[in-house]
Amino acid sequence: MERRKDSLRNLFQDLGCKVESDAVLDKCFELCESYNVDVEKLTELWLTFCVNNNSDIDPTLATLVKMENAVLKKDYKLHDSTMENNANKNQSTMDKQGFSANRNTENDDMLSMYGCAETRPPKVSF
Q: Which residues form the DNA polymerase alpha subunit B N-terminal domain (predicted)?
């Protein structure tokens, strides 16, 4: 773990950032794991966040949380198996309710408006 921390500390130093504590590095690793980004990407996001927000480039726990809220939560999916399971359940529910079948006919109608699909008579439900 110390080797990983030293590597991340060096990445920040290469960008001109000074890391004050190991707690900051631990938070960075937590963010990497939570949002499925590697440390190189995280440091790039950090620098971009600092430039765009006119913020000090030395990471702190408070500013990392601000970056998480402003960037990661908006642009990256939280890497969590429970969220993936919920997404699968929602898709299954939609399929059971017939939304998937309705989408196909809507797409066909839209394509026919542009002459890209053969027109069919509407389906009649009894």
A: 7-74
Q: How confident is the model at residue 11 (pLDDT cuts 50, 70, 90)?
A: very high
User: Is residue 120 one of the residues assigned to a domain?
Assistant: no
**Which residues contact residue 70 at a Cβ distance below 8 angstroms, ignoring those fewer than 6 apart?**
49, 53
Q: pTM for this one?
A: 0.62
Tell me if residue 89 falls in helix, strand or coil: helix
Using an 8 Å Cβ cutoff, are 18 and 58 in contact? Answer: yes
Q: What is the dihedral of CA 16, 40, 51, 31, to 10 degrees?
A: -110
pLDDT score recorded for residue 119: 52
Specify if 123 maps to a domain.
Answer: no
Q: Within this chain, do residues 34 and 67 fall inside the same structural domain, yes or no?
A: yes
Burial 39-64 (b: 16+ CB within 10 A, else e): beebbebbbebbeeeeeeeebbeebb
Q: Which residue range forms the structural domain that includes residue 31? A: 2-75
State whether 36 and 85 are in the same domain.
no
